[in-house]
Design a protein that fits this description.
This protein is mainly α and 202 residues long. The chain contains 9 helices and no strands. α2 packs antiparallel against α9, α3 runs parallel beside α5 and α4 runs antiparallel to α5.
């Protein structure tokens, strides 16, 4: 992964800028929004867990881009493993609430998306050279990583197509309809795809 990141400097810094913009967008939206329970208020309501997941993923991927040679693979795996477990527990809780008639499907799929992204990133870092040296099992085959990257890239394209607005509102529930919530989702898609390709190429 380090070789790919360092070889394409322009792409590297472009992705890093995207993570910075995404973090600023999410923080601004959270600051302006009302509490999740205020569905009848004029201010937009956000999913704070989902936004927190956006910020955490941006932080992890930004660290990997800024310090590709110094980032400790074991620490990254530990952080991503913890995130995956937390998102899994939160997803289970939301599914149970949904089954009991509390909450809506949007809140379930929002965390489901973050769980998938965190798991994909964990898969990407599991095959680093440092990981092999420490006795970890090899990562996923490059074909699997590239396939997952294509899925996230396709999702980003879907987000960018204006005609997909109705489908986006049904499947990508990051707050109320509008362009703002789409930006973090697109950056997360592209960032995850970038990391998966970098891991596949090495």
């Amino acid at each position: 992964m380090e070789t790919f990141v360092l070889q394409y400097e322009l792409l590297r810094w472009g992705m890093l800028a995207g993570f910075v913009v995404t973090a600023a967008t999410v923080i601004r939206r959270v600051a302006r929004a009302g509490p999740e329970c205020a569905a009848g208020r004029a201010v937009p309501v956000v999913d704070r867990h989902s936004d927190a997941a956006h910020l955490l993923m941006c932080l992890v991927m930004a660290a990997m881009l800024m310090f590709p040679l110094r980032a400790d693979p074991a620490a990254l795996r530990g952080v991503l493993t913890a995130m995956t477990v937390v998102y899994g527990v939160l997803l289970t809780t939301r599914i149970m609430h949904r089954h009991n008639g509390n909450g809506d499907v949007h809140r379930v799929t929002a965390i489901g998306y973050h769980l998938a992204a965190a798991a994909a990133m964990l898969l990407a870092v599991s095959g680093t050279h440092a990981g092999h040296a420490m006795g970890h099992t090899p990562g996923a085959p490059p074909s699997v990583l590239v396939t997952l990257a294509a899925v996230f890239a396709a999702d980003a394209v879907l987000m960018a197509v204006p005609a997909s607005g109705e489908l986006r509102r049904r499947l990508v529930p990051h707050g109320p309809a509008g362009g703002g919530p789409v930006i973090p989702h697109m950056v997360m898609d592209l960032g995850t795809a970038y990391m998966l390709v970098a891991a596949a190429i090495g």
